[in-house]
Amino acid sequence: MKVTPETQRIMMAIRAIPHGQVCAYGQIAARAGLPGRARLVARVLAESSDLNLPWHRVLRASGQIAFAQDSEMYAEQCRRLRAEGIEVKSGRVRMPKTDLDLDALLWAPK
DNA sequence: CTGATGACGGCGC
DNA sequence: TGCGCCGCCATCA
User: Cα separation of A64 and A88, whole Å?
Assistant: First the structure.
């Protein structure tokens, strides 16, 4: 895929998602300094497919898994999430009302 | 240049 | 809470 400084920051943001935590496309974009580029995040994931990215920790803002429930990718993402102790209820996970937990971890106050 | 598309979001009802 | 509609952005035919 085409690696621009933007896609770099996006991948960095995704790699920063802690084990057992999830994050929305939009949040990733925002954290990468690209507000409104949620769709760009989606493309980066789609095109980097087999990189060492925790792609399964990225979902829609609604907490819904982004794939069709009958797709293989959906099943795979489900497995991986549950493997990290995340409960997946009818295609969606409980998204934190605020992402302060994540911010706290990322901001790593010293 | 124009219109369609998609691992998306937000607002209204 | 759930849906639908519309807005956004980057590509592509």
Answer: 9
Q: How far is the CA of A43 from the C1' of B6 (A)?
A: 9
For A22-79, the pLDDT digits (tens) are 999 999 999 999 999 999 999 999 998 767 899 999 999 999 999 999 999 999 999 9
Indicate the CATH number for domain A5-101: 1.10.10.10
Whether A89 sits with its Cβ under 7 A from any strand C atom: the answer reads: no
Can you give the distance from the CA of residue A44 to the C1' of nucleotide C3 in angstroms?
28
Q: Which residue has the higher pLDDT, A109 or A55?
A: A55
Please check whether residue A31 is in contact with residue A50, taking contact to mean a CB–CB distance below 8 angstroms: no
A36, closest nucleotide (Cα–C1'):
C8
Write down the domain spans for chain A. 5-101
